[in-house]
Request: fold
Amino acid sequence: MLSRSLRSRILVTATAVAALGLAACSSGGGTTPGSSGTAGGGGGGGDTITVGFSQVGAESGWRAANTKSIQESLTKENGFDLKFSDAQQKQENQIQAIRSYIAQGVDYIAFSPVVETGWDAVLEEAKQANIPVILTDRAVDVADETLYQTFIGSDFVEEGRRIGQWVSENLGTEPINVVELQGTTGSAPAIDRKAGFEEATKDNPNVKVVASQTGDFTRDGGKKVMEGFLQSNPDIDVVYAHNDDMGLGAIEAIEAAGKKPGEDIKIVTIDGVKDGMTALAEGKINYIVECNPLLGPDLADIIKTLDSGGTVERRIVTEDGAFDQEQAKEALPDRQY
Ligand code: GZL
Reply:
């Protein structure tokens, strides 16, 4: 969830603009292309707002929690007509879904881009159709930044940095061989989590990444890649998995090899979903940096702010916690996902 101060800043802007009568609420498809988020949106307040959402897929516990949050927030009772699609982690399916939303004339398009590049053409089509686009969870790399109104999600570089700092300080006091289970190739979280870890560990000669390969953010992918790592690397000390699900797959592979995860081979991951936090509390994972999936309420706020003629920040970064094994035991009972 956004911090209270950030949410209040978003809403205050809208109120101020509306009060000054500066809101130019257009009916139909939203704002003039390229504005900084002063969308008129579906009906300028009051009418049902139609939103087309293209989700990456259902690849992980994080994604399931994210989907639930969005579907529970953009409800008819809350003034939305949500059209939702699952792209099964294929960019072509997301592009097809966005084109379908454009053809349907939705008021807003929101999506979590499976990879960073390849979006310029379809987002230009949305811009020409006067449909504002909101990025959730993952960012895009486009030439024209006006192709989307705002990005809301975590700072993945910082997540990788926090993992790297913990590994360097707690495990890197002696030479350690690290294997890395990367997320989906070309995705913002995979690129940034790798960069953050490298930045935080580059000055510690004890920390050596001996193998790095994508497990595509899935439990099965993490297990299969870890099996390969175990066969080709006799002395693995630490697994850095870009998400809990690949870390949980690595646990299966490590136990099948007759070793103790969390002890013989330490594991650090990112997300903080229930299964990951449970493994952390049980001592099979050593440290988790959270990545908050509960973006639904903030997405609803952003769209309503834009729809009432308000403006939103270009980049809205959500707050993430971090947990060691003792902290996981305390936090587990109250976790929402
Ligand atoms: C991060 C999100 C990532 C999660 C994975 O915001 O995009 O995708 O870390 C999920 O679990 O598959």
